[in-house]
Design a protein that fits this description.
Elements (H helix, E strand, L loop, with lengths): L1 E5 L2 E5 L2 H11 L4 E7 H6 L1 H8 L5 E5 L8 H13 L6 E7 L1 H13 L6 E5 L2 H7 L4 E6 L2 E8 L4 E4 L9 H18 L1 H7 L10 H18 L14 H12 L7 H20 L3 H14 L10 H10 L8 E5 L7 E6 L1 H13 L1
Parallel strand pairs: 2-9, 3-4, 3-5, 5-6, 6-9
Antiparallel strand pairs: 1-2, 7-8, 10-11
Helix pairs in contact: 1-3, 4-5, 6-7, 6-9, 7-8, 7-9, 7-11, 10-11, 10-13, 11-12, 11-14
The protein binds nicotinamide-adenine-dinucleotide.
């Protein structure tokens, strides 16, 4: 078991039965609730059931997927808490991926002005990214995460064993954030990751804490996203636009799949504007196209991507804001580029 401390709460990485049992013993709570979806109920609940059953938990089950990350589902969660007479001293365990963590945390921190919650992330994306940093919320009027707040959990319990039932596609998607963390802050980890091609053989017990530690350090320096936290945006300016556009088509991309494309394009911009060595750009492009299938980006869609980038909430004024790499393992925030170089970056990806 490895433990990191972030602000006031611990992040345990290791067998969940052990970390959960310890966490429950340390909390004073009157009632225990577990939020799960149909997949985490089937695959992840069995790993925690022996530990929680003595506390007579109420399991609140919701439908999986981003389409259900909204106020209607929150209302259902609040209703369940009300009907079971949850008081301010109830405890909610969020058992699932980023959707369950963001929405369960939001529902808990607003119910009766806030009840404590514990994040039990079960996807790779949630284990290395979504479960830490305190950002909670739901989608509203088709804008992702537009209703929410910052609030910390009592603890985060990440167990690599959960990943064995995750689909290859979801595992690969979450891995994009691991790659991103190494590229912005840990050249040595980036060097090691490049020899990993079969994700099922990865040593997650080693990779997850190293990756989490990078996000932890950035979040600690900038808890409310005023400056340095923008470093985490590498690959996301172009990636989000590609993801947003693909969502409207019949071939939607998972978040990490779009971010992988975004990282190649933004590495190209880094080479052009930040002197990222050409050999490093080639390494980044080679590895990402080895792990993620190439997607043909239709140049007819570039204007849509540019419009979506222009709408990104992280932009100030007209310039499109990027976090770029002067070299692998370092990041420069608040860099800008306009349509010309961005188009070249998309063309660069298309030519690979
Ligand atoms: P997700 O929560 O939708 O989970 C993906 C799928 O995997 C779901 O169908 C889920 O039921 C299933 N699943 C989860 N764990 C499983 C397991 N162990 N075995 C089998 N199936 C399992 O997706 P995600 O990628 O984990 O999270 C995406 C969400 O995270 C987005 O809503 C995004 O906005 C949010 N996010 C938040 C932050 C943050 O800082 N709060 C950061 C990044 C992403």
């Amino acid at each position: 078991m490895q433990t990191l401390a972030l602000d006031t709460y611990p992040i345990h990485i290791g067998p969940v039965a052990e970390s959960l049992s310890r966490t429950l013993q340390q909390q004073a709570f009157s009632q225990l609730f577990v939020l799960a979806d149909e997949n985490t109920k089937a695959h992840c609940w069995p790993l925690i059931a022996p530990v929680v059953q003595p506390y007579n938990p109420v399991v609140i089950e919701i439908n999986s997927g981003e389409a259900h990350k909204n106020l209607r589902t929150c209302e259902y969660i609040w209703q369940q808490l009300m009907e079971h007479r949850a008081g301010r001293d109830a405890l909610l365990l969020n058992l699932g991926g980023g959707v369950i963590g963001d929405m369960g945390g939001f529902a808990a921190s607003t119910f009766k002005r806030g009840i404590p919650f514990v994040q039990i992330p079960t996807t790779l994306l949630a284990q290395v990214d979504a479960s830490i940093g305190g950002k909670l919320g739901v989608d509203f009027m088709q804008v992702k995460n537009s209703i929410g707040l910052f609030c910390n959990p009592q603890a985060v319990l990440a167990d690599p064993a959960f990943l064995s039932t995750l689909s290859d596609r979801e595992l690969r998607s979450g891995y994009a954030e691991v790659i991103k963390h190494s590229l912005i802050a840990d050249a040595a980890q980036w060097g090691q990751l490049q020899s990993l091609t079969n994700l099922r053989q990865a040593d997650w017990a080693q990779i997850i804490p190293a990756s989490l530690n990078i996000k932890k350090q950035i979040v600690e320096t900038d808890p409310f996203e005023k400056g340095l936290r923008k470093a985490l945006n590498f690959g996301h300016t172009i990636g989000h636009a590609i993801e947003g556009h693909a969502l409207e088509t019949d071939a939607p991309l998972l978040h990490g799949e779009a971010i992988a494309i975004g990282m190649v394009c933004e590495a190209f911009l880094s080479c052009r504007q930040q002197n990222l060595p050409k050999a490093q750009l080639e390494q980044i492009a080679d590895y990402l196209t080895q792990v993620y299938s190439k997607v043909a980006l239709d140049p007819a869609h570039y204007p849509v991507y540019l419009r979506l980038m222009g709408n990104d909430k992280k932009n100030e004024g007209q310039a499109i804001n990027f976090s770029l790499l002067p070299e692998a393992g370092t990041v420069a925030v608040n860099q800008t580029a306009d349509a010309g170089p961005i188009t070249e970056a998309l063309d660069f990806y298309n030519r690979l």
